[in-house]
Design goal:
It is a single chain. With about 240 residues, this protein is of the alpha+beta class. It has a domain of about 150 residues: Glutaredoxin, CATH 3.40.30. It is about 20% helix and about 25% strand. The strands form three sheets. Strands 6-7-14-13-10-11-12 form a seven-stranded mixed beta sheet, sandwiched between helices. The protein has a four-stranded antiparallel beta sheet with strand order 2-3-9-8, with no helix packed on it. A hairpin with a 2-residue loop joins strand 8 and strand 9. GO terms for molecular function: peroxidase activity. InterPro entries: Glutathione_peroxidase, Thioredoxin-like_sf. This is Phospholipid hydroperoxide glutathione peroxidase isoform X2. Belongs to the glutathione peroxidase family. Keywords: Oxidoreductase, Peroxidase.
């Protein structure tokens, strides 16, 4: 696999060969290797920005929601990362200026598949026109279902729902471990001090500036997620 170095903002690398699609998203050649900097470190197949250890975590009154808080020292944004969509590298700066919900969706399907896709499509359809997007990342359910308790009961609709999704779905990634995708390493460090993601359909809400804002567990009620989305949609871009 080609190493992807993600420590430098893409707009600082004018020599890269970029291709713009009709949605103003930047596709990167599979052969591209972004330059590293002194502030980066390696993890499996990826090199990515050093975590901001000024971040600390607080729980809201609802135990399902975790809010990330940072010092004024600044922090990395999701725009510094890239992922693959249909085997093509894509800069997450594609979502610049949008309120974004990042979610891990099991490739094999789950007992939660139908209800969770209904939730995601509801949010997407009702708020897309206001600047809301969803980025779903396919993963192997074994990562969050170590015991396999509900794997046998899960309906085999994972790929069906993935193919029918109206929002953006990225290629399969690892969430945890040494070969975890840098984006999820960043999110885990910010909200869980590096602890593994333990459930399917875990959601991370990102503001219009690309800063991860809140983390929602699988069983967070729809109205609670939607309230935070509406709040961020009203905020201006810095």
């Amino acid at each position: 696999m080609t190493s992807m170095v993600l420590s430098s903002p893409l707009n600082a690398l004018p020599h890269l060969k970029l291709r713009i699609n009709s949605s103003s998203c930047i596709y990167l050649s599979n052969k591209i290797s972004l330059e590293s900097s002194k502030s980066s470190f390696s993890n499996g197949d990826f090199t990515f920005p050093s975590p901001n250890f000024s971040t600390f975590v607080s729980k809201s009154p609802s135990l399902n929601v975790i809010t990330a808080q940072t010092s004024p020292l600044g922090e990395h944004t999701i725009y510094e990362f890239q992922a693959k969509e249909k085997r093509r590298g894509l800069s997450l700066s594609c979502f610049r200026g949008k309120v974004l919900l990042i979610v891990n969706v099991p490739e094999q399907g789950s007992v939660w598949t139908e209800s969770q896709y209904e939730l995601l499509h509801y949010l997407y359809d009702n708020h897309k026109s206001q600047g809301f997007e969803i980025a779903a990342f396919v993963y192997d359910k074994k990562e969050t279902d170590k015991e396999g308790n509900d794997a046998q009961k899960a309906p085999s609709r994972g790929q069906v729902e993935i193919n029918a999704a109206r929002f953006r779905v990225f290629d399969k990634v690892k969430l945890n471990g040494q070969r975890a995708h840098p984006l999820f390493v960043h999110l885990r460090l910010k909200f869980g001090r590096g602890e593994p993601i333990k459930s399917e359909f875990h959601k991370f809400l990102v503001d219009r500036n690309g800063v991860a804002y809140k983390s929602f567990s699988l069983d967070t009620p729809r109205h609670e997620i939607e309230d935070h989305i509406k709040h961020l949609l009203l905020e201006d871009i810095d």
